[in-house]
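The authors assume throughout that readers already know how a fold can be written as discrete tokens. What matters is that the chain and its backbone geometry are given together, residue for residue. A single example would do more here than another paragraph of explanation. For illustration, here is how one protein appears when written out as sequence plus structure tokens.
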Amino acid sequence: MDKKAALFHWLFFGVLIALTIFFININTSELGSDQVRGAWHIGTIWAFQDLQIKQLEQDNEIREIAYQTRVNLPIPEYFGCGTITDKKIPLLNDGARWCNVFLQNIFLDNFKINLGDLYEKYSDILLSEEYVIGVAKELQKEEQDKLSIPMGGMNRHIFLVPPFRRELSYNPSFRINLGTKLDEFQQFQIKAGPLLGACRGNEDLRVCINNYDLPESWHRFHDCYNDIEPQDNKVSFCVGINGQLYNFALDFNE
């Protein structure tokens, strides 16, 4: 390498180093003495962190309330069609007449009660397919006085984030999958229809029901705990579905 080439080589690196120092000084001066490069991005993340945690905690609380309401849903002891046995097993039909049991309404009434003060935040709570949905009245607002994050150590006069006032909001609406449409009794009636048609008026009701191909998880002559004999052509059934046991009776009289 001749002298001119060497001179040009070192001159190039000298200019490059000078430009690097120049831009570093510009960036530092633009940020000022009260924050460092990238501080605003850090501050934005930090500002939303508490709010996100609070929203997540509330979502989890409402989800747990919904699940517990579903699991502990009180089943009516009387459907409007009478009962059988001393245990008062409710009849799902009275001859050709069906008695409707709307678990959807029972769930919503109990869920709203179990929400407590949280219920006041919602203009509507409804069921859609397998979901319970809460429509918020307004955005949830969070406000705090001026906040700052000092670097600490020897640089306590420098702030990662300059003092600022935090005013944030989020939508507390929710949509929770219950795993069921809460239409179990309507489904029981649909599946019981062919059974009633096949065995109603049969001289040997027990044999007819035993020979009938019952839907899966249906147990005949049972109350989910003990065997129950038919009474006046009225038979008790236990059905397990969605982790729940349901006991009802069918009237096979014409």
Notes: The CA atoms of residues 27 and 85 lie 86 Å apart. The chain has five helices and twelve strands.
